């Protein structure tokens, strides 16, 4: 079980720091717990454990409207009790990537870190090339975080990465993006959701199940899960996803979901869901 000592807040360091909403603190708590359970639990089962962050950012963010700073997913993964054997950080904004490099050098200069500059969808071959080659004597397992700013992820990228042993933790920004732009996506003039789901026939299924707008969010989450099942990831119900809401109006923002081919990973994930509720928290 996790140590329970995670604190998402850090001090300002003078480097470039993008803004996020206050709800991001919960996201990072969830990620910190799962990262630790995964990294420690898999330490003696695989020869190498690789952590991949497709939208790595700058490593630290500032909560909008406050003076609080949050430790981002790359720094969380770097400071685990049982760190990963290798880290691959991809970021499309060069300025953010340079800030991340500086922070990583300050925090864990000895870590084995590869940086990929550019869009993960364009540079997916470079990301794959940084993953150590697996063999019978060198079993490699990767954990990939997919945390885009909106529902703009590309399923094809995940399909390419899934050709090796890899689990995914995916932020499905359905409430923040897809629901707000409902008409634009449903009328067929945009291919954004087509690319995120990896298919174009979801609209027909949506018309079949009904057109009640409040059902659109869980429908898209189920559709994405269906797409992952096509890659031989385990089928899991929607209640195994974590719905994160805004800290101000309690509006649904996104689902945080695990996709794995192993039941062991979901045992870890169940612990995350169990201990990360406001009533029962490992960090209290």
Chart the SSEs and their pairings.
Elements: E1 9-10, E2 19-20, H1 24-41, E3 48-53, E4 60-63, E5 69-71, H2 73-78, E6 86-91, H3 94-107, E7 113-117, H4 124-130, E8 140-146, H5 155-161, E9 166-172, H6 174-178, H7 182-186, H8 192-197, H9 202-209, H10 216-229, E10 242-245, E11 252-259, H11 263-275, E12 276-277, E13 280-281
Parallel strand pairs: 2-4, 3-6, 3-8, 6-7, 8-9
Antiparallel strand pairs: 1-5, 4-5, 9-11, 10-11, 12-13
Helix pairs in contact: 1-11
Tell me what you see in this structure.
The protein is an alpha/beta fold and 284 residues long. It has a single domain, classed as Vaccinia Virus protein VP39 (Rossmann fold, 3-Layer(aba) Sandwich), CATH 3.40.50. 36% of the residues lie in helices and 20% in strands. α3 (94-107) links the parallel β6 (86-91) and β7. α1 crosses α11 (263-275). The longest helix has 18 residues, at 24-41.
Features:
284 residues; alpha/beta; 13 strands; 36% helix; disordered C terminus
Summarize the structure.
By secondary structure, the chain is an alpha/beta fold. The chain has helices at 24-41, 73-78, 94-107, 124-130, 155-161, 174-178, 182-186, 192-197, 202-209, 216-229, 263-275, and strands spanning 9-10, 19-20, 48-53, 60-63, 69-71, 86-91, 113-117, 140-146, 166-172, 242-245, 252-259, 276-277, 280-281. The chain has a single domain (9-174, 233-281), classed as Rossmann fold, CATH 3.40.50.
């Amino acid at each position: 079980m996790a140590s329970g000592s995670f604190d998402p807040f850090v001090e300002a360091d003078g480097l470039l720091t993008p803004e996020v909403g206050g709800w991001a603190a919960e996201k990072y708590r969830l990620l910190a717990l799962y990262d630790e359970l995964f990294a420690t639990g898999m330490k003696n089962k695989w020869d190498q454990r690789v952590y991949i962050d497709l939208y790595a950012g700058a490593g630290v963010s500032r909560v909008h409207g406050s003076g609080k700073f949050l430790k981002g997913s790359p720094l969380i993964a770097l400071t685990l009790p049982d760190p990963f054997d290798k880290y691959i950080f991809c970021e499309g904004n060069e300025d953010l990537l340079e800030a991340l490099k500086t922070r990583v050098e300050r925090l864990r200069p000895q870590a084995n870190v590869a940086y990929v500059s550019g869009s993960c969808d364009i540079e997916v071959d470079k990301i794959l090339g940084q993953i150590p080659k697996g063999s019978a004597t060198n079993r490699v397992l990767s954990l990939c975080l997919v945390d885009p700013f909106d529902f703009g992820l590309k399923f094809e990228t995940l399909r390419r990465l899934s050709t090796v042993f890899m689990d995914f933790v995916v932020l499905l920004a359905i409430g923040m993006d897809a629901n707000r732009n409902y008409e634009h996506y449903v009328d067929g003039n945009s291919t954004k959701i087509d690319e995120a789901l990896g298919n174009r026939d979801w609209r027909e299924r949506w018309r079949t199940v009904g057109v009640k707008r409040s059902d659109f969010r869980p429908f898209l989450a189920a559709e994405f899960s269906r797409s992952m099942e096509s890659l031989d990831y385990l089928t899991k119900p929607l209640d195994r996803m974590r719905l994160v809401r805004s800290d101000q109006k309690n509006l649904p923002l996104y689902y945080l979901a695990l996709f794995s081919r192993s039941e062991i990973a979901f045992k870890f994930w169940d612990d995350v869901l169990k201990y990360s509720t406001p009533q029962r928290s490992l960090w209290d």
